[in-house]
Backbone:
């Protein structure tokens, strides 16, 4: 995703048709950040409950 962002930035300065690369990589990086947030929430707080395995729901932390 970071490579796509770098390529998007480099190509966008020279050619206009490559502009979607910037938005594609920005959406991908945003999705990655959302996934990391979910991993942290599940690991530390066991929330949201429907994503935590049933046998781990009683544990408080990692």
Residues:
């Amino acid at each position: 995703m970071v490579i796509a962002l770098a390529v998007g930035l480099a190509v966008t300065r020279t050619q206009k048709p490559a502009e979607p690369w910037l938005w594609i990589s920005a959406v991908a990086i945003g999705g990655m950040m959302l996934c990391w947030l979910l991993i942290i929430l599940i690991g530390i707080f066991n929330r949201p409950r429907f994503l935590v395995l049933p046998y781990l729901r009683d544990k408080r932390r990692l």
The CA atoms of residues 26 and 62 lie 31 Å apart.
